[in-house]
Amino acid sequence: MPPTPTPSPTGQRFLTPAQTAEQIAANGERVLRQSMSRTIVLSLLAGFYIAFGAQLATMVTHDTIPIIGDGLTRFVAGSVFSLGLMLVVVCGAELFTGNSMLTKAALHGRIPWHKIAQNWVVVLLGNLVGSFFFAWLMFHSQLWESGQVAQRAIAIAEAKTELSFGAALIRGILCNWLVCLAVFMATAARDVTGKILACYVPIMAFVASGFEHSIANMYFIPTGLLLARLPGFESADLTWGGFMANIVPVTLGNIIGGVVFVALAYWFIYLRGSRIH
């Protein structure tokens, strides 16, 4: 991630599922060539890009529930949040959740397993730092002073930290199942319009459904924590312990969702038996 386009047959407007699976496996070879410094910068960018979508979702929905209700508010939030993956895919960045797809390259014999572990550690930390820094920027932008933005941001963070381990794990699985399907479809698309649409629908669906994305939560919860320190916005329910209690199960769920239900499933269907030695 991001996918590297390869020439498609004349007249073919998108890759077939089999071609897409092969393309994703081939794209995984970048971890063998990409420098550590480049991986770090790309992972920071992904943290910024997902945070852009997260703050936009907070901003545009801070006063919509009384007007259009909770269901349509979730739809609006998901629609604008999809900006984050669009930026990752079209502009290029290293996103931890999308990099669950690297396991397809390892199963196909294109990269060693230890390279996946190395990439995941670096990218997860880079995404974390990028998300934290963006939360700090938004806090000091004072944009939260408009309307009920601060209350909305705190409410989002509180709802996430109140989840049980099991609920957070399952919501994480369901989330990255859709995120990785979005990456799969964006890889299949041969033009920017197709890639944007491929990102939009699954991402809108996971946000509207209430699923949990680890990197987004690295923005949502710290933002709530920063705002909850201000007079008039105090919240005893928001703590860094609550942050970790959310991030750990959601991250594990994201790994399971992306690896098992997308990477492993499509490797089994299309690439099993054609392993590169």
UniProtKB/TrEMBL annotation:
Domain of life of the organism encoding this protein = Bacteria
Q: Where in the cell is it found?
A: Membrane
The family annotation for this protein states: Belongs to the FNT transporter (TC 1.A.16) family.
Query: Which stretches are annotated as coiled coil?
Result: none
Keywords assigned = Membrane, Transmembrane, Transmembrane helix, Transport
Enumerate the PROSITE patterns for this protein. Answer: FORMATE_NITRITE_TP_1, FORMATE_NITRITE_TP_2
- Matches recorded under Pfam families: Form_Nir_trans
Task: Name a single GO cellular component.
Answer: plasma membrane
Topological relation to the membrane, as annotated: Multi-pass membrane protein
Q: Which InterPro entries does the UniProt record give?
A: Aquaporin-like, For/NO2_transpt, For/NO2_transpt_CS
Q: Does the keyword Cell inner membrane apply?
A: no
What is the name of this protein?
FdhC protein
Membrane-crossing segments per the record? 40-60, 72-96, 117-139, 168-189, 196-220, 240-269
The protein's GO terms of the molecular function aspect are: formate transmembrane transporter activity
